[in-house]
Design a protein that fits this description.
Oligomer: single chain
CATH superfamily: CNF1/YfiH-like putative cysteine hydrolases
CATH class: Alpha Beta
Order of helices and strands: EEHEHEEEEEEHHEEHEEHEHE
Strand order of the largest sheet: 5-6-9-8-10-14
Length: 247
């Protein structure tokens, strides 16, 4: 990914080339010492201020729609109704809104089909990956007219395969789903799990070309620029991945 040192944000070269407005924030975005977008670990006014900073960067006051993430496989197709819904993936073809998801180790994935002007954002931790949320989201995009060969995918900063430890119970779930190649034994009780690799396979199974899939390879656990629930605990802040079809 491309780092903007002035605004302290990251962007995808693949999506920039396609003309999609998007960004991934960091802990110190826009000159702040704690650019937290979580709904829980701060006051509403502070979060609203941070949202307004992002809107200013996007040069628009368009609403940024965040779902209520529940670590499941629900997909919210944002059409007319903007009231917050429980979901871990959001889809739209509207150009008057932006979509956002919050993460602190889970995978933030942007899916963009430029020919049909379709956009989706996916929040996928191990639960979302094991239930193939990204594949289900891609199926919905295809049902809406997207051509898988035209879909661009960017997997943003998230916990990497060299440090993501899981227990034997979680490992068994992935073994049973045929993903044993993405597990590496660490000791008798822990294994390393490669969510990046599984997500890439799931997207290719839905027809995406490997050249249209971008993995940031930025690990949130080892990079202090990002909030990390594994490193800081469940009270860690959240950074945002945001995208809009607005030109």
């Amino acid at each position: 990914m491309i780092f903007d040192p002035i605004n302290q944000i990251y962007q995808s070269p693949l999506l920039l080339q396609a003309g999609l407005k998007h960004l991934t924030t960091t802990r110190n975005s826009f000159g702040q010492s704690d650019f937290n977008l979580s709904r829980k670990q701060q006051t509403v006014s502070k979060r609203d201020k941070n949202i307004s900073i992002i809107q200013k960067y996007l040069q628009s006051n368009l609403p940024i729609i965040f779902p209520k993430q529940i670590s499941g496989d629900s997909i919210w197709h944002v059409t007319e109704e903007l009231a917050i819904k429980d979901a871990d993936a959001v889809i739209t073809n509207r150009k008057d809104i932006a979509l956002g998801i919050l993460t602190a180790d889970c995978l933030p994935i942007i899916l963009y089909e430029p020919q049909q002007s379709l956009l989706a954002l996916v929040h996928a931790g191990w639960r979302g990956i094991q239930c193939n949320l990204v594949g289900k989201t891609l199926k919905q995009l295809t049902n809406l007219g997207a051509n898988p060969q035209n879909i661009l995918a960017s997997v943003g900063p998230s916990i990497g395969p060299e440090v993501y430890e899981v227990g034997t119970d979680v490992a068994q779930v992935f073994n049973e789903k045929g993903y044993s190649a993405f597990l590496k034994p660490l000791n008798n009780e822990k294994l390393l799990l490669n969510l990046w690799g599984i997500a890439e396979v799931q997207m290719m199974e839905e027809g995406l070309d490997s050249s249209n899939i971008e993995l940031s390879s930025l690990c949130t656990f080892t990079n202090p620029m990002f909030y990390s629930a594994r490193r800081e605990g469940l009270s860690a802040g959240r950074f945002a991945t945001i995208a809009t079809l607005m030109k």
